[in-house]
Amino acid sequence: MNGAVRPMRAEDVPAAHAIRLRVRENRLSDPSVVTEADYHAFLARDTMSWVHARGGTITGFAMVDVERRNLWALFVAPEQEGKGIGRALHEAVVAWYFTRADRLRLTTAPGTRATAFYRRAGYAELGPTPDGRELMFELRP
User: Fold this and answer.
1) 3-state secondary structure of 51
2) In total, how many domains does the chain have?
3) What pLDDT does 96 receive?
């Protein structure tokens, strides 16, 4: 994997949001549900976010919420998939997060590459969300 993981800055939000809107899986059914303002509000709380950048271009990002014990986002630009970027971002999340909290949860659509990724990373499947549209996962150190 070329490039580097670093903390997200406010000026990275447009590039991160553009990636979120272009992903192939776990797409937003309504793109207006998550806006750039949501990222900025997220950054202002007890959270931490990272980007992977290569040559000045953001190729992926991850955002974790300590208060809610939730991995809010981990996305890689579609043209950059399969290059270890998601794994590098996840490693940054876990290394930082478990100094602050004892469990990390997330939801993702069933039958996606993301479900396989999180299982390989050691997450336990907790079952479907109350509406049945996604699966809940949890990771403990």
Assistant:
1) strand
2) 1
3) 96
